[in-house]
Amino acid sequence: MRHPEGIHKLALAALIATTLLVLIAGSFWVTRLIAQRNTQATEQAQAANSAILGFPINGDIAPDFNLVDQFGHPESLSSLRGREVVLAFIDSRCTSLCPLTANIMYDAKAQLGTTAASRVTLVAINANPTATSIATVQAWSINHGMLHQWLFLTGTAQQLQAVYHQYGVYVQVDASGNDVHDPAMYIIDAGGHERLLFETLNSNSKPDLTSEESGLVIGMRQWLPQS
Fold it and tell me: Are 152 and 70 in contact (CB under 8 A)?
């Protein structure tokens, strides 16, 4: 028969061992949870950084198109070779997100300075296949101070749908006439290669707009053609 003191010591040792195991297991899971949260935070920061600085593209030649601008002049992407192109998709009836995109494009180009800005062309593709007239894109350009600041291109619904498909841009007009589309903006270098993809944030806060403009300026400077 074991002495009560020995039994007490064994019980105490077992309690200590169990406590240590619990502490070790707890430390493991706490460490793992912290690591997971750090990883998530890092991924979120990287995603936010990419949203601001643009998502790199593989450098393929951007799909060409033949459309007309807000003055009725025929325009093609290939005719702009030798210049950097900032290409956005703009709903010709939009009064919310699209004006933000136009402002970001205009302000970013202005920040380049006169010489550099002269080597950049801003281009908008009409992202509303139900409002395709030249008068519509011209009126939108006038209303948002962009008439002589960019090329706002349009065409038939079939022509526009083909461009959406080529660039992988989602565009859908519902039964009520509401247009939903990807707020995509591409930087295309002077050789016609796709380089960066940006997406306009659905926010008109000054810090967000400033960050987006700064990111676009960095991207534009990176791919400016040599003078």
Answer: yes
